[in-house]
Amino acid sequence: MDTLVIALRVALSLGVVLALMWVLHRRMAKGQFGAGKTRGRRSASVEVVARQGIGGKASVVVVDVEGERLVLGVSEHGVALLTSGQAPAPELTIVTGPVQLPARPASAEQFRQELAQQTAAEPRLPDAAAEPLPMRPRNRRTHRTVVPTSAQLQGSILAADTWRQAAAALRNRRAG
User: Fold this and answer.
1) Residues 6+ apart with CB under 8 A from 98
2) What angle do CA 168, 171, 174 make, to 5 degrees?
3) Of 20, 36, 38, 126, which is most buried, counting CB atoms within 10 Å of its CB?
4) What confidence tens digit (pLDDT) does each residue in 11-54 have?
Protein backbone atom coordinates (compact mmCIF):
# COMPACT_ATOMS: atom_id res chain seq x y z
CA MET A 1 0.00 0.00 0.00
CA ASP A 2 2.89 2.36 0.81
CA THR A 3 4.36 1.75 -2.66
CA LEU A 4 1.07 2.76 -4.29
CA VAL A 5 0.88 6.00 -2.27
CA ILE A 6 4.48 6.88 -3.08
CA ALA A 7 3.93 6.16 -6.79
CA LEU A 8 0.82 8.37 -6.84
CA ARG A 9 2.68 11.21 -5.08
CA VAL A 10 5.56 10.97 -7.55
CA ALA A 11 3.13 10.96 -10.51
CA LEU A 12 1.24 13.96 -9.10
CA SER A 13 4.47 15.88 -8.45
CA LEU A 14 5.72 15.13 -11.95
CA GLY A 15 2.40 16.33 -13.40
CA VAL A 16 2.60 19.60 -11.45
CA VAL A 17 6.20 20.21 -12.56
CA LEU A 18 5.36 19.49 -16.21
CA ALA A 19 2.30 21.77 -16.06
CA LEU A 20 4.42 24.55 -14.56
CA MET A 21 7.06 24.14 -17.26
CA TRP A 22 4.35 24.27 -19.95
CA VAL A 23 2.85 27.48 -18.51
CA LEU A 24 6.28 29.13 -18.28
CA HIS A 25 7.10 28.08 -21.86
CA ARG A 26 3.86 29.57 -23.16
CA ARG A 27 4.47 32.86 -21.34
CA MET A 28 8.05 33.09 -22.60
CA ALA A 29 6.91 32.40 -26.17
CA LYS A 30 4.29 35.16 -25.98
CA GLY A 31 6.84 37.60 -24.58
CA GLN A 32 5.08 38.32 -21.28
CA PHE A 33 8.34 38.29 -19.31
CA GLY A 34 10.11 40.86 -21.49
CA ALA A 35 12.78 38.61 -22.94
CA GLY A 36 10.53 37.29 -25.70
CA LYS A 37 9.59 40.74 -26.96
CA THR A 38 12.76 41.22 -28.94
CA ARG A 39 12.85 37.71 -30.39
CA GLY A 40 11.19 36.50 -33.58
CA ARG A 41 11.18 37.31 -37.26
CA ARG A 42 8.83 40.26 -37.00
CA SER A 43 11.10 42.33 -34.79
CA ALA A 44 14.32 41.30 -36.55
CA SER A 45 15.51 43.74 -39.18
CA VAL A 46 18.37 41.61 -40.47
CA GLU A 47 18.16 40.14 -43.98
CA VAL A 48 20.81 37.87 -45.46
CA VAL A 49 21.16 38.95 -49.10
CA ALA A 50 23.84 36.48 -50.25
CA ARG A 51 26.32 33.95 -48.92
CA GLN A 52 29.37 32.51 -50.65
CA GLY A 53 31.67 29.88 -49.22
CA ILE A 54 35.37 30.54 -49.80
CA GLY A 55 36.88 27.68 -47.84
CA GLY A 56 36.12 24.75 -45.62
CA LYS A 57 34.69 26.76 -42.74
CA ALA A 58 34.93 30.31 -44.10
CA SER A 59 32.43 32.34 -46.08
CA VAL A 60 31.52 35.87 -47.10
CA VAL A 61 28.01 37.03 -46.18
CA VAL A 62 26.18 40.12 -47.46
CA VAL A 63 23.62 41.36 -44.93
CA ASP A 64 21.15 44.26 -44.88
CA VAL A 65 20.63 45.71 -41.38
CA GLU A 66 18.21 48.61 -40.97
CA GLY A 67 19.02 50.22 -44.32
CA GLU A 68 22.74 49.51 -44.21
CA ARG A 69 24.49 46.83 -46.26
CA LEU A 70 27.31 44.96 -44.53
CA VAL A 71 29.81 42.55 -46.07
CA LEU A 72 30.99 40.15 -43.38
CA GLY A 73 33.76 37.59 -43.34
CA VAL A 74 32.67 34.55 -41.34
CA SER A 75 35.08 31.86 -40.15
CA GLU A 76 35.24 29.39 -37.30
CA HIS A 77 37.20 31.96 -35.28
CA GLY A 78 34.65 34.77 -35.57
CA VAL A 79 32.95 37.38 -37.75
CA ALA A 80 34.79 40.33 -39.28
CA LEU A 81 33.35 43.41 -41.00
CA LEU A 82 34.88 43.67 -44.46
CA THR A 83 32.99 46.73 -45.73
CA SER A 84 29.72 48.59 -45.24
CA GLY A 85 27.57 51.01 -47.17
CA GLN A 86 24.04 52.16 -47.86
CA ALA A 87 21.66 49.37 -48.87
CA PRO A 88 20.08 49.91 -52.30
CA ALA A 89 16.39 50.76 -52.39
CA PRO A 90 14.22 47.80 -53.34
CA GLU A 91 12.84 47.84 -56.85
CA LEU A 92 9.11 47.26 -56.86
CA THR A 93 8.01 46.84 -60.44
CA ILE A 94 4.90 44.82 -61.16
CA VAL A 95 4.12 44.44 -64.83
CA THR A 96 0.92 42.67 -65.89
CA GLY A 97 1.34 43.06 -69.62
CA PRO A 98 3.37 44.78 -72.28
CA VAL A 99 4.04 48.42 -71.50
CA GLN A 100 4.33 51.00 -74.26
CA LEU A 101 5.42 54.43 -73.27
CA PRO A 102 3.68 57.06 -75.37
CA ALA A 103 5.65 59.63 -77.31
CA ARG A 104 5.56 63.03 -75.74
CA PRO A 105 2.27 64.67 -76.82
CA ALA A 106 2.47 68.12 -78.26
CA SER A 107 -0.55 69.46 -76.38
CA ALA A 108 -2.78 68.83 -73.41
CA GLU A 109 -5.59 67.62 -75.71
CA GLN A 110 -3.37 64.91 -77.21
CA PHE A 111 -2.41 63.86 -73.69
CA ARG A 112 -6.10 63.53 -72.69
CA GLN A 113 -6.81 61.43 -75.77
CA GLU A 114 -3.85 59.13 -75.08
CA LEU A 115 -4.89 58.80 -71.43
CA ALA A 116 -8.49 57.96 -72.39
CA GLN A 117 -7.24 55.37 -74.89
CA GLN A 118 -5.01 53.70 -72.29
CA THR A 119 -7.69 53.62 -69.58
CA ALA A 120 -10.31 52.25 -71.99
CA ALA A 121 -8.11 49.31 -72.99
CA GLU A 122 -8.91 46.04 -71.21
CA PRO A 123 -6.06 44.49 -69.31
CA ARG A 124 -5.26 41.02 -70.62
CA LEU A 125 -2.52 38.47 -70.51
CA PRO A 126 -0.29 37.79 -73.49
CA ASP A 127 -1.61 35.30 -76.06
CA ALA A 128 0.98 32.66 -75.12
CA ALA A 129 -0.76 32.14 -71.78
CA ALA A 130 -4.27 32.06 -73.27
CA GLU A 131 -4.73 28.30 -72.95
CA PRO A 132 -5.05 27.12 -69.35
CA LEU A 133 -2.37 25.01 -67.80
CA PRO A 134 -3.30 21.44 -66.85
CA MET A 135 -4.06 21.05 -63.18
CA ARG A 136 -2.38 18.19 -61.37
CA PRO A 137 -2.86 17.62 -57.65
CA ARG A 138 0.34 17.57 -55.67
CA ASN A 139 1.38 14.73 -53.39
CA ARG A 140 -1.59 12.59 -54.33
CA ARG A 141 0.18 9.29 -54.58
CA THR A 142 -1.64 6.18 -53.55
CA HIS A 143 -0.47 5.34 -50.07
CA ARG A 144 -0.26 1.67 -49.29
CA THR A 145 -0.21 0.69 -45.67
CA VAL A 146 2.49 -1.89 -45.13
CA VAL A 147 2.03 -4.12 -42.12
CA PRO A 148 5.42 -5.36 -40.91
CA THR A 149 5.90 -9.08 -40.42
CA SER A 150 6.94 -10.64 -37.14
CA ALA A 151 10.42 -11.28 -38.55
CA GLN A 152 10.85 -7.56 -39.27
CA LEU A 153 9.66 -6.61 -35.77
CA GLN A 154 11.83 -9.13 -33.95
CA GLY A 155 13.82 -7.44 -31.21
CA SER A 156 11.99 -4.09 -31.49
CA ILE A 157 9.71 -2.53 -28.91
CA LEU A 158 6.72 -3.25 -31.17
CA ALA A 159 7.26 -7.02 -31.19
CA ALA A 160 4.93 -9.12 -29.02
CA ASP A 161 7.80 -11.41 -28.06
CA THR A 162 9.70 -8.48 -26.56
CA TRP A 163 6.75 -7.65 -24.30
CA ARG A 164 6.35 -11.31 -23.29
CA GLN A 165 10.02 -11.50 -22.33
CA ALA A 166 9.77 -8.28 -20.31
CA ALA A 167 6.67 -9.56 -18.46
CA ALA A 168 8.41 -12.87 -17.72
CA ALA A 169 11.48 -11.07 -16.39
CA LEU A 170 9.31 -8.98 -14.05
CA ARG A 171 7.46 -12.07 -12.82
CA ASN A 172 10.74 -13.85 -12.12
CA ARG A 173 12.07 -10.83 -10.27
CA ARG A 174 9.05 -10.70 -7.97
CA ALA A 175 9.08 -14.43 -7.32
CA GLY A 176 12.82 -14.69 -6.68
Assistant:
1) 126
2) 150
3) 36
4) 999 999 999 999 999 888 877 665 545 555 555 578 888 899 88
**Predicted TM-score of the model (pTM):** 0.31
What's the chain's length in residues? Answer: 176
The Cα–Cα gap between 116 and 109 comes to 11
With beta carbons less than 8 A apart as the criterion, state whether 70 and 79 touch: no
In tens, the pLDDT along 78-121 reads 999 998 888 777 776 676 777 676 666 567 888 788 778 877 77
Backbone angles phi and psi of 48, in degrees to 5: -80, 115
49 neighbors 62 (Cβ within 8 angstroms): yes
Any alpha helices (H) in the chain, and if so which ranges? Answer: 2-30, 108-120, 150-153, 160-175
* 11: amino acid identity, one letter: A
Confirm if 74 and 82 have CB atoms less than 8 A apart: no
Sheet holding 59-65, edge to edge: 46-53, 59-65, 68-75, 78-86
Q: How far is CA 21 from CA 13, 33, 60, in A?
A: 12, 14, 40
What residues contact 28, with CB distance under 8 A and at least 6 apart? 35, 36
